[in-house]
Specification:
Layout (H helix, E strand, L loop, with lengths): L4 E8 L3 H12 L4 E4 L8 H4 L21 H6 L9 H14 L6 E2 L3 E8 L4 E8 L2 E12 L21 E4 L14 E5 L3 H13 L2 E6 L5 E3 L7 H18 L20 H14 L15 H18 L3 H6 L13 E3 L2 H4 L5 E5 L5 E4 L3 E4 L3 E3 L2 E4 L8 H4 L2 E3 L6 H4 L18 E3 L12 H21 L5 E3 L1 H16 L29 H13 L5 E3 L1
Parallel strand pairs: 1-2, 1-6, 2-3, 4-17, 6-18, 7-16, 8-9, 8-16, 9-12, 10-11
Antiparallel strand pairs: 4-5, 5-6, 13-14, 14-15, 19-20
Helix pairs in contact: 1-13, 13-15
The protein binds 3-acetylpyridine adenine dinucleotide.
InterPro entries: FAD-binding_Monooxygenases, FAD/NAD-bd_sf, Flavin_mOase-like
Cofactor: FAD
GO molecular function: flavin adenine dinucleotide binding; N,N-dimethylaniline monooxygenase activity; NADP binding
Length: 536
Amino acid sequence: MSGAQQVDAVVVGAGFAGLYMLKRLRERGLNSVLLERGAGVGGTWYWNRYPGAKCDVESPFYSMSFDDPALDQEWEWSTRYPDQAELMSFMNHVADRFNLREDIRLESSVESATFDESSNTWSVTYRGPDGEKTLESRFFILATGCLSVPNVPKFEGLENFKGSVYHTGDWPHEEVDFTGLRVGVIGTGSSGVQLIPEVAKEASELKVFQRTANYSVPANNGPLTAEKLAKVKEEFPEIREKMRNTGTGMPTPDPTELVSNTPDEVVRKVFEDHWTLGSFAIQNTFADLAINQESNDKLAHFIHEKIDGIVEDPEVAEKLKAREYPVGSKRICVDSNYYETFNRSNVELVDVKSDPITSITETGVATQNKEYELDALVLATGFDAMTGAIMNIDIQGRDGKRIQEYWDAGPLTYLGLSVAGFPNMFSLAGPGSPSVLTNVVAAIEQHVEWVDEHIGYLDEHDFATSEAHPDYEREWVDHVNEIANMTLFLKGASWYLGANVPGKPRVFMPYAGGLKAYRDRCEEIAANGYEGFQLV
Ligand code: N01
């Protein structure tokens, strides 16, 4: 005996996936520990607390019942889209309501996990408030999130900047006041698009450093009236069922009509109605928007016209129009007054594609042609997505096989769940699964329930370990690529492809076939005795 604490399962990460996984494992009678590097639960929503942070999936749908329909009935969502504070309240409520905290160790950062073949256990070492500790566990479950490792570009001189530097994905817990300051924001993805209108209200001057314009649509956020909430609650069982049966993980039916078969005036009316309604659902109005360039161009053109209608300075409007890639191939943004913000006299859009940033100086940002004096700098520069958090843990499977080496050219998984050579290790909503291309909470729910049932199967059939068969893993990775190749996704230099982090392999990581098709596949595999998994 090593002296390390023995448990049945170690779960890493206290976001939606980790909390629900812990609940299910506990109900199965497994002695489980959840390790979380933050000082609180909430995952993404614990770290991303920048001004304007909110989810762009509507409140009732960006939630799950945690297999207890009473939760759906008792929680009162206040707005159409949940903001960061409300999501944190919800996650904390979940942790309390299901008594999860007693098995959660906060401020506990996992450093390594090594599989011991003689005992079929994982030795998981983490650094916690009391120093380094090790747990020995049969199952090792990664609920580490797809967007949890901030990407900080290697700007020359960043460390010399005398003002404050913030990253949206690692925002301070105390309030940040930009009143009267000259602020620079680098990055115009979803985080930047949400933050910029809020900072513009406080800053004396705001410089927005944009390398690539994004497509953004209005959120049309507002209170969720008592009447609407009552209706949602009444319909929850049906809504949850619908969410399980669509490609997007949303309750709205998948589109069947094609732009290419629809008269232009009808297409325009559909886009217009969705623009007024708000939400990213505009990209799911027709079945060919993600696969047909000409159809997609019509949506791009529609958004460009909207920008022209909002932004007063035609030159600024022109710069704000995304042109190099199809709508949705980089994740569409959902905003509250983003384009309108560029009509403010204290806001300047700086195009750093044509005039690149050369360094950060003591007093601001230097581009090839100009220097911008700043008091504070916000990096809205995204994440080392999908693989970053997993690759940050020194994971060794059978025969000393290291995940860092095995995934050197991109992630290899079977169903995004299991990796050949890493027995009893499961990843939730990670690379190779639909996760970020769908309503991620719906995707997480499916993964957690599948893993939980799989563990039940192993126990019922006296199997000690489960891991992906390498041939099935290869086939799955090929399938993920084949589906991606049928879409327009490969035309955007997105974080889906690892293109936002210099040197990261360019591999399309999520599964683009939709949640319903994926769920069916997972169920079929389970029904066939977990085909493709080596059960020993
Ligand atoms: O990150 P991003 P994000 N010099 O990678 C720029 C989710 N999310 O945090 O496009 C200059 O999208 C980069 O420019 P470019 C959502 O899934 C959801 O905004 O690489 N610029 C880009 O403009 C989202 O997709 C919500 O040319 C540099 C920006 O930084 C995902 O998180 C809210 C640069 C990064 O955009 C990530 O969004 C927030 C450099 N060296 C986030 N490096 C909601 O639910 C990077 N950039 C609403």
